[in-house]
Amino acid sequence: MGYSKVNVHEIEPAGPGGAVRFVRRELGVEAFGINWFELPPDFGGRIHDERESGQEEVNVIVRGSGTYAIDGEEVPVREGDVLRFDPETTRGPTSGADGLTFVAVGARRGSYEPRGHF
Length: 118
Fold this sequence. Notes:
mainly beta; Jelly Rolls
């Protein structure tokens, strides 16, 4: 089959507090990682880096607001913000009073080959 489709609300919640839905696994993606996170109000996510995997990561804030601890700095985030992290950058989200929903996409550096000016 040339495509796959899933509704994020039909993926079984997993991880701490059921905050993550493993989209990559459900879609069968092999080129990059992609997960959907829904943090309840005032919830601290996992502080981590991706040194071991070598993945560069992008987080897209879909709903809500909060902060990210990025290498010890508190960075406010809100709906529409997009963050990019080097593999060695330590980061971790904390949701605000309305919770925080974001999509995380990651792949090893160098795996993407730009084509054209897009």
